[in-house]
UniProtKB/TrEMBL annotation:
Residues forming coiled coils: none
Organism of this sequence: Halanaerobium saccharolyticum subsp. saccharolyticum DSM 6643
InterPro entries, per the entry: Acetolactate_synth/TF_NikR_C, ACT-like_dom_sf, FeFe-hyd_TM1266
Protein name: Iron-only hydrogenase system regulator
Superkingdom classification of source: Bacteria
Length: 85
């Protein structure tokens, strides 16, 4: 299966409860992550993480599945049709 470029938008409630788990998942899958940006929102009590990813749909699905199973984590992912070597 060919690799594709995509993005993952993550919103985290109560970051202090799951931040260690999120960081472990992202570190374990660092080879698929091209870029990462995190922005806290004290006003709303949320943290947002934006990822630019490169991997097969199965690899990206595994990452989002692990993250999405954490309590207080909501996410959306989108893969482009652009295939890369």
């Amino acid at each position: 299966m060919k690799k594709r470029i995509g993005s993952v938008a993550i919103v985290v409630k109560k970051r202090e409860k799951v931040s260690n788990q999120i960081n472990k998942i992202l570190s374990k899958n660092a080879d698929c992550i091209i870029g990462r940006m995190g922005i806290p929102s004290a006003e709303h009590g949320l943290s947002m993480i934006s990822l630019i990813v490169e991997g097969t749909p199965d690899e990206i699905g595994a990452i989002t599945g692990q993250l999405g199973s954490l309590p207080g984590v909501n996410l959306k992912s989108a893969l482009t049709s652009v295939e890369v070597e």
